[in-house]
Amino acid sequence: MSQVAERNTDWFSAVYYGVRAYCCERPSDVAEIRERLEDYFEKSRKTYLGIKKTGFSSKSLKPGEAFKYFATFFLQFQNILFTRIGYDELESVCTTMLLLLTSHLKALPQAQNHKMEANLLSYIVLITLFSLYNQVFQYKGSENSPKDGVVKDLDRDEITRECLRYGGAILSKIFHARLLTLDDAYVNVFLPVMYFLVSNTQFTTHFKTHGEGFRTGLDSLLRDLTNSGQEIPSEESQRAGKQEFAQCILLMDRFLLGFRPLTAYFTSAKTEAVVSKRADSRYLLTLLLLELGADPILAELAPESTLTRDEEDEEVKDHLEILGQMSANVRESREKNLIVIDGQNVAVRYGGDRFRSKGIKLAVEYWQQRGHAVQVILPDFCFQREEVLKRQQTAESMDLRVKNIPDDVDLLLAFQQKKIAFGIPNWNYDDSYIIDYAMRKEAFIVTNDRYNDHIEKFSNQSAEKRKMLQKWIRGNCISFAFIGDDFMPNPEFLNAHHIK
């Protein structure tokens, strides 16, 4: 199949089938397949270089072009991981790749053929799982398995860390795309990922620790399932369900058997290999999400309703009243509050037109001195000296402002070591993380950002839901000022909410 794709100069399909051959249980000639894969990567690289020469910009895409260009940048990412060629341009390749993936996913609700789109996403997922498996287990062929492969240190090996970073970002974006609300075909996109994660817990732990978007992505998938009528099973039902699925495989599993990155799952989770046409793949996905730690409470608290508009608005009012009572009870039961600091917003406010880390320090000290728990949220690069230096040098060479580049990384690292400051993925740094986290924790956010862009993202929701979100933001965001080195939160807000 890879040779057929090669004749059609379809490098995306050629790489996919090449990866499948390379990772099958008994490849006929590992060396030959690897050489062929490297050849496919080299040819796709020439396509990538040709696109670069044209001055390509993801902002000038025509409708329907996103996937074509995404596939080229995605293959270049895989090429860098597989061959180590072009590592210095990894970040720029992946930044564009993720923008193109976002554009493609946004367009999927208008797709004419969801089964075809699901197949393409399955290719992306399986190639991504291959690169994760290949990097961590240093896969060299059929004789090399997770049990006897050399497992790398995920925190110290740079290229493995980057593979996990961007591979996790790809999966997170697909998780958040709400595909399960479009067509059942997309279930087959997610099941291989769940198979991989439940049988390779080091990946799950890493993604949960280093990627907030990954954790919320699991919750998002579970919410989509419950919104479409899937019930959350009891613990007893979960145990029974696992036993039932252990005795059969799904129709789609036939195409995954023998794929080395998933061997651990089929070996440990299946006692029989009998195909069941009646097995409910959505129920299996639900069980796997719960096993991975998706939060059923969040899935049930924030459903995307399928009721009529009048019924939905009535339900939202009831839900708002319940949340208000819960919030009042929580606030009443604790003397102090969790304060979440929008790190960039505070640092730039203190520095004028520059990111001055001292502003964060002054804000943290203010709240800590009054007995509040404090957490600062920043993009990951703020804790990476080399990355900050590179961005400073790039900005200076191009005579650009360095508004969002911290001046004191050591101070931020000290807060990180004390579990006060936390990073979120650079490519996903937006309001959603801060707001979602603060809502979960019943926290207040210290920021001068009114988050209008975030509210606008909910334009396709009912007016009542947008009003509910806006009300929460206005009632939980504390504006502030600096007078010299004195941090001054809005006194009217503090008095209105009895914050001392």
Give a topology summary.
Blueprint (H helix, E strand, L loop, with lengths): L1 H6 L3 H12 L7 H24 L12 H18 L6 H18 L6 H24 L20 H18 L11 H13 L1 H10 L1 H16 L7 H12 L13 H10 L11 H11 L4 H6 L7 H25 L4 E5 H9 L5 H13 L3 E7 L5 H13 L11 H9 L3 E4 L6 H11 L2 E3 L5 H5 L6 H14 E2 L1 E4 L2 E4 L1 H6 L4
Parallel strand pairs: 1-2, 1-4, 2-3, 4-5
Antiparallel strand pairs: 6-7
- Main beta sheet strand tally, sense and closure: 5 strands, parallel
Shape: globular
Radius of gyration: 24 Å
Q: Return residue spans where pLDDT drops below 50 for at least 5 consecutive residues.
A: 140-150, 298-335
Per DSSP, what share of the residues sits in E-state strands of 2 or more residues? 5-15%
* Count of DSSP H/I helices: 23
Strand order of the largest sheet: 3-2-1-4-5
Helix percentage range: 55-70%
Please report the total strand number as a whole number: 7
Distance between the amino and carboxyl termini? 68 Å
Q: How do the SSEs run, as a string of H and E?
A: HHHHHHHHHHHHHHHEHHEHHEHEHHEEEH
Structural class: mainly alpha
Mean pLDDT: 80
